[in-house]
Amino acid sequence: MPRFAANLSLLYQEYAFLDRFAAAAADGFVAVEYLFPYTFDMGALHSSLQDHGLQQVLFNAPPGDWDAGERGIACLPGRESEFRNGFVQALDYAQALNCPRIHVMAGIAPPGADHAALQATYRANLAWAAAKASAARCDVLIEPINTRDFPRYFLNRQDAAHALVQEIGAPNLKVQFDLYHCQITEGDVATKLRHYLPTGRVGHIQIAGVPERHEPNVGELNYHYLFGVIDQVSAQCGWDGWVGCEYRPALGAVAGATTEGLHWRPAQAGQTTGPGTRWP
Predict the structure, then answer these.
(1) Does the annotation count 215 as an active-site position?
(2) Which of 143, 167, 186, 220 is catalytic?
C-alpha cells in the first residue's frame, strides 16, 4: 500500500498545531505535511518531528497574503523579489526540518491579465527556484488546482504542469499530483496515474474525497481501487513517493474526529491503522 503522510493543517484540528504531531504519530503515521511553517520556530518544529519519530515530507513556500485571498505569487509579474525572498525562507525551513520537497503555489490570475506574461513570469521563477533548491538537494513541486475551489488559479491541468516541467528541464522540478483536484477538473484519474507516474515527474500525491474534500472513502472516487493502481504502477516503475492526506474530517474539528475517520486507511507494513480498516 502507498505510504501516507498526515496533513497537519487539515487533520487533528481539535489540537493546537504543535500537539498534532503527537496525535498523528499515535494513529500510526510516520510522515507529515502541512501548508506553512513560518509562524513557528524551526527548533520547535524540529523537536516535534524528532520526539515523535516523524518525517517532514512537504510544505508550501510563502503564498503572498493568504488572509487577503492570495494563493501564491509565482506567476505574478512585479512580485519576483518577494517570491525569491520567500523561497529562500522556505529553503531555510526545509534544511532545518530535513524536508525534501517545497510546493510553490502558482497564484491567482488577475482579471484581464496577459496569459503570456503570467506564464513567462511563472516559468522564470520556477527555473530560478529549482536551481536554488538543487544545491540543497530539495525538489520544487507545482500543483494543478481546480478553479472551483480557487477561481482563476493559474495552473489547473496535469498536462500543462507536466509540459512546463519538461520545458524547464530541471531534474528537481516535479508535479504534485492531487487526485482531488484532478477529479474535479479533468477526471480519468486512474489513467492519469498510469500515464504520469512512470515519467519520473511526479514528486508527491495528495488525496481527499470528492466533492466535499472529506475522508477518501466519502464521495465519488474509489480510492480502494486507486491505491491498487498506485501500487501496481509503482511496482513497475519504482515510484516511491508519499501520499498526503489533505482532507477535512467529515466530523469536523471535534475531539477524536480525525482518528474516528481513519477507517479508510488500509493496513500496511510499518504503519498501524488506528481504529481499523473498512470500506463502506
Answers:
(1) no
(2) 143
